Amino acid sequence: MFADLHLHTNFSDGTYTPEELTAHGQRLGFRALALSDHDTMEGCARMAAACASAGIEFIPASELTAELEGHELHLLGYFLDTTNAKLLEELAKFQEVRQNRIREIVARIRELNVPLREELVFEVANCRAPGRPHVARALVKAGLCRNLDEAFERFLKKDRPAWVPKFKMSAPDAVALIHQAGGLAVMAHPGLNNCDDLIPALADCGLDGLECYHTKHGAAAAYHYQKVAEQLGLLVTGGSDCHGLSKGRPLIGGVKLPYFRVEEMKKAQAARAKSNLQSAI
Ligand code: AMP
Ligand code: FE
Ligand code: FE
Ligand code: ZN
């Protein structure tokens, strides 16, 4: 029995609908799935319904972009209350930041005499949480780049001409935001962030877990992060970070988190919920 706890749909920069993603999960025999779209939980209701009909356990989640000591990190919130007012208010702000950033990115691309239309990017994105992948897809669709890699290489990667920094909330604030919404805070793909020395400070801020298994973590990285999690008393999580087809295949199925890790998370979440309740009294 396995889980995939890191998935994106077309409510952010994935290409599958919640129903299509769930169908892949069912075909692959997953016991549990979490939807972790960037800065939104809008796909969760449909994914929950699809999972319920497929007999799959569903965990509502979201992937937030945060910052600590100048490093960008991604924090996954699991078991979030999708009706939490404070969380919804903050997500709406992040979405507005994303939309303004797209306008800025397109303006920079146009300054380079590449006639990308802003409307095309928003049309391709068709969601409230647009990101650089949508700009890349629009560049390809308009015939201005041959493929997504070229779009990132020429314009969108950090320090390329159309790269625009994104406002990020501080990591301690993001952890607190997740906790007040009843969730567990997990650092996503630490192997991609190159800031292992910040993990103890994050644990001191209340970080609950570490995404040890990820498509871009090899066996050595997965083992290393499990040891770090063990030393710091953090939960071990994992997921494929599937955004749809990647080189002709979906990534879902490539990472299989043993289901007992989900049970450990549920215990930790119940303990957090109890302490939230006590501090509210
Ligand atoms: P954003 O949230 O707008 O900063 O975009 C980040 C997203 O872009 C990530 O979640 C990935 O899906 C994607 N991404 C980042 N770097 C690359 C790259 N070099 N090639 C393709 N996709 C990328
Ligand atoms: Fe993404
Ligand atoms: Fe990420
Ligand atoms: Zn992701």
Strand content: 15-25%
Mean pLDDT across all residues, rounded?
Answer: 96
Distance between the termini: 39 Å
Task: Count helical runs.
Answer: 10
Form type: globular
How much is the radius of gyration in Å?
A: 18 Å
**Structural class by secondary-structure content:** alpha/beta
Number of strands: 11
Largest sheet geometry: 9 strands, mixed
Question: Could you give the order of the helices and strands?
Answer: EHEHEEHHHHEHEHEHEEEEH
What bound compounds does this protein have?
A: adenosine monophosphate, fe (iii) ion, zinc ion
Which stretches are low in confidence, meaning pLDDT under 50 for 5 or more residues running? none
Instruction: Tell me the helix content.
Output: 40-55%
What would you say this structure looks like, in words?
It is a single chain. The protein is an alpha/beta fold and 281 residues long. The chain is 45% helix and 18% strand. The strands form two sheets. Strands 1, 2, 3, 4, 5, 6, 7, 8 and 11 form a nine-stranded mixed beta sheet that branches. The longest helix has 27 residues, at 85-111. It is globular, with a radius of gyration of 18 Å. The relative contact order is 0.16. One fe (iii) ion binds at residues 8, 13, 38, 243. The site of adenosine monophosphate has 10 residues, from helix 5 and helix 6.
